[in-house]
Amino acid sequence: MIRTTHEILTVNAEPYPFEFSLATCALLIIDMQRDFLEPGGFGEMLGNDVSQLRAAIEPNRRLLEVWRSKKLQVMHTREGHRPDLTDLPPAKKIRGRSKTCIGDAGPMGRILVRGEAGHDIIPELYPLPFEPVIDKPGKGAFFATDLHAILQNRGIQQLIVTGVTTEVCVNTTVREANDRGYDCLVPSDCVGSYFPEFQAMGLKMIKAQGGIFGWVSHSEKLLAVL
Ligand code: TIU
Question: For the chain, how many helices (H) and strands (E)?
Answer without folding.
Answer: 9, 11
